[in-house]
């Protein structure tokens, strides 16, 4: 709404100052000051990344829980970071939003972060597994916890070999974020824009393609970490479908954690009045008919 208002600034000015169109007193009450326009322009720079993050995390065609912490870290350390050019009002807005996000996602101790399902999902996601958005100590704690989970899966398999049965693989389509609007003159990839330096642009695998069926849990995790990082548009489910024979036990964890939805938007769209807010709906007939 604010973006559209800024686009129509000249048209609004022309209407307000059109002779005979409205009373001078009404025109003065409708006219915004230069400070108001400047504040709106600055507000858009804050709100656009938040809108992009909301759109991406509300998706249904790709795992979203794994994106929560990388995206939030990008918002906190890039888009909500105070700048010397910010006005006092903008600094206050950034501080309020950043404080709320920090208290919700990064206020817990390292042990709580290491065991959080969304963090485990990020560690199992081929695009975010390096956990660049966390410090070294937190990363070590997460991989230690993942090692514990993987050992539990291996122990369960060894005590009950029949508990794992092959199922018919489902068709997984490649996912992109082409429907997410990126601000003009910004980076072309939505997640790269949101996450900045936390976005892993991918690279070559540091090893060949060994069969990891007989590797122990620690080696399996290390081999997975050295795999080539997927680019943004790649689908993690498709990657795991192709590499499950190489990482059968780790794939069991991936099926559990990558299956977690990052938000309740999918159900809200159907069962709640909130769906009227998060879903785009046609409000008028198309101007071009027939």
Structure description:
This protein has two domains: 1-45, no CATH class; 60-161 and 182-278, no CATH class. The chain has 15 helices and no strands. Helix 4 (34-57) runs antiparallel to helix 5, helix 5 packs antiparallel against helix 6 and helix 9 (136-159) crosses helix 13. It has helices spanning 2-7, 9-16, 24-30, 34-57, 68-79, 88-105, 110-114, 117-124, 136-159, 190-195, 217-225, 236-243, 248-257, 265-271, 275-278. The protein has 290 residues and is mainly alpha-helical.
Relative strand content: under 5%
How large, in whole angstroms, is the Cα Rg?
24 Å
- The domain tally reads 2
Straight-line distance between termini: 29 Å
Largest sheet: none
Q: Helical region count?
A: 15
């Amino acid at each position: 709404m604010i973006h559209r208002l800024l686009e129509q600034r000249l048209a609004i000015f022309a209407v307000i100052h059109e002779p005979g169109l409205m009373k001078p007193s009404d025109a003065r009450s409708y006219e915004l000051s230069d400070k108001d326009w400047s504040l709106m322009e600055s507000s858009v720079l804050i709100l656009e990344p938040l809108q992009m993050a909301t759109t991406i995390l509300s998706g249904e065609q790709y795992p979203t829980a794994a994106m929560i912490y990388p995206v939030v870290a990008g918002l906190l350390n890039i888009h909500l970071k105070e700048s010397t050019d910010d006005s006092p009002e903008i600094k206050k807005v950034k501080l309020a939003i950043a404080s709320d996000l920090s208290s919700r996602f990064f206020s817990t101790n390292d042990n709580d972060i290491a065991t959080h399902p969304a963090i485990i999902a990020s560690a199992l996601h081929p695009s975010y597994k390096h956990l660049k958005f966390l410090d070294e100590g937190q990363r070590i704690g997460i991989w230690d916890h993942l090692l514990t989970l993987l050992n539990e899966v291996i122990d369960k398999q060894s005590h009950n070999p029949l508990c794992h049965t092959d199922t018919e693989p489902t068709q997984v389509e490649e996912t992109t974020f082409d429907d997410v609007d990126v601000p003009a003159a910004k980076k072309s990839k939505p997640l790269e824009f949101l996450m900045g330096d936390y976005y892993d642009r991918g690279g070559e695998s540091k090893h060949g393609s060994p069969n990891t069926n007989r590797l122990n849990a620690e080696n399996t995790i290390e081999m997975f970490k050295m795999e080539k990082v997927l680019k943004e548009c790649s689908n993690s489910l498709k990657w795991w479908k192709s590499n499950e024979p190489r990482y059968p036990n780790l794939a069991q964890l991936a099926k559990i954690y990558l299956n977690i939805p990052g938000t309740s938007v999918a159900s809200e769209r159907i069962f709640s009045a909130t769906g009227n807010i998060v879903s785009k709906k046609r409000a008028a007939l198309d101007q071009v008919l027939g």
